[in-house]
């Protein structure tokens, strides 16, 4: 047992830690905050999905995280790659992809997402698919520039309150 603790570095860790309880509590808090990190995003995604299903005609089908259709390039060796939050189908044809984000705080993540969605808009047009970005949250109040830049290049960006516009977006599809 001592040999295992020595090889894994646990013994040297005990030399550096002054209070094991505080150290372990810090790890627990860190892990817990990581589990909460995207909780609001998942709740927002679920709220959007339910509202979209209520708003659109029943002959459209909403598929959550569809493994069969993605405009994201597959990662090396992985044929499936990343999925979209929702794909809306008319019959067997994908006509709309939806990405949802909710940001409580600003930072580099919302900025990089906005930039990547500009590229996603281009890929959607090439495939004759509509791209809809639903984004909301208090972070955007302090980070208007990246959102305004994206709004110039992405056809449809709405917040939760504006989601009823999906009926107009799908009307010509």
SSE diagram, text form:
Layout: H1 2-8, H2 10-16, H3 20-36, H4 39-55, E1 60-64, E2 86-90, E3 93-102, H5 108-126, E4 130-136, H6 139-142, H7 144-153, E5 156-158, H8 166-171
Parallel strand pairs: 3-4, 4-5
Antiparallel strand pairs: 1-2, 2-3
Helix pairs in contact: 5-7
Structure description:
The chain is α/β, with parallel strands linked by helices and 173 residues long. The protein has two domains: 34 residues, no CATH class; 133 residues, 3-Layer(aba) Sandwich (Trna Endonuclease, Chain: A, domain 1). Helix content is 50%, strand content 17%. It has eight helices and five strands, in the order ααααβββαβααβα. The protein has a five-stranded mixed sheet with strand order 1-2-3-4-5. The chain is elongated and about 70 Å long. The N and C termini lie far apart (66 Å). GO terms for molecular function: DNA binding; type II site-specific deoxyribonuclease activity. It comes from candidate division WOR-3 bacterium. InterPro entries: Restrct_endonuc_II_DpnII-like (IPR007637). This is Restriction endonuclease type II DpnII-like domain-containing protein.
